[in-house]
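Two records follow; treat each independently.
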Amino acid sequence: MLDWLFTTALSDAAEPLQLSFQDAATPMMQGIIDLHHDIMFFLIIILVFVLWILVRAMWHFRAKKNQIPQRIVHGTTIEIIWTIVPSIILMFIAIPSFALLYSLDEVVVDPSLTLKAIGHQWYWTYEYSDYNSSDEQSLTFDSYMIPEEDLDLGQLRLLEVDNRVVVPAKSHIRILVTSADVLHSWAVPSLGVKCDAVPGRLNQTSILLEREGVFYGQCSEICGTNHAFMPIVVEAVSRKDYGSRVSAQLIPAQA
């Protein structure tokens, strides 16, 4: 019971009728949320202003008040204003968005861990390239969705897998994503990651997990009949516990 409460408390997954973002677990996701809030600030101001203009125009220039409509050819002042003001607003939006875009494309030179995710129809294969066994084979395992009838108490329907990806928290992690058959997409909302898995191509992204927890995601590229049944589960643990968790996965992988 305590294990279920602990896992549920640390789980990051979508909730029923949720409209906002999931809680950020990486600086990238926090930057995405902050940029969204910044844009919404300007969006609400523009929306209110445009609605005010429309209502004011319909009220003052209605047919009962103005039987003969006025003919306005042009207005130099207003044209200058509605050209300069939007340009300034776009500048305030562009500066943080470009900064975030470049940070998302930043490649970690010396990551603590390199994880390779391979998409299949319809499951994921993970490879810890930094950990080799005695026969020089890296730690590799498949991750399948747990059927609904096999779920334990507290596990999430259509989101739980038999083998989670265990990574250390507060560490730079490089993720290599590819596919063995068709297009897939490795996406975890709380981590701010959505990377396409393309056959014959190796895409790369980096994350820095700022806290421990269990983070749920799904394939975000329509890949066939069972596209909705290949979830992703990333479990971030402390560096102290990470070694034992990886060793526990390494033993069955070598058997």
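The next record belongs to a different protein.
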Amino acid sequence: MFNMSFDIHKSWKPYLEQELNKQYFNDLTGFVKSEYNKHTCFPPRNQIFNAFNHCHFEDVKVVIIGQDPYHDHGQANGLCFSVNEGIKHPPSLINIFKEIELDLGIPYPKSGNLIRWASQGVLLLNATLTVRAHQAASHQKKGWEIFTDAIIKIISDQKQGVVFLLWGGFAKKKIKLIDNQKHKVLTSGHPSPLSANRGYWFGNKSFSDANIWLEDNGEKKINW
């Protein structure tokens, strides 16, 4: 039996129960099951909800919003911008790590696996959680965006003092789901080369600003 809701960590279940029982999520489950049965899709089926399984609801301190999983072999692991151990870093991730170097003086890391962030309370949330191999955006507008918008709204409503990092035009549209009286919203250009090379990414200080906010609100800063 294929039931995607079984794969979401129990800490999220009380907050998502209504969403998981809606017709669109049932339809989405059927679509994803069909896609994974007929085609090569990413991330692997057991990693679709890694963002939630490595960052439990009570631990969420920072939310980073991406758009689609990587669509090449071995890359996607269910965390936005993250790749598996030993995989060449994609251009956006390279620019993320370069900005961390500039911002915090942290040396460029060997591993592009961002589980180390997730385990500290960083929810690495793609708007669309699955994709067909080599076909970017192939699983958009099938219901994932409804689900992930609900996640953002639930975090905004149910938690206090979360930092939302909205990079690029797509992510910035999510600001309408966030109560910026309760939370900190930091925006910048996207880390993709197109945006970064035009001067919209480097020097944004997202990472130091997020840590300043967390510490000012009594939270432990993220070791980026």
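Discussion point: The radius of gyration is 17 Å. How would you locate this feature using only the token line?
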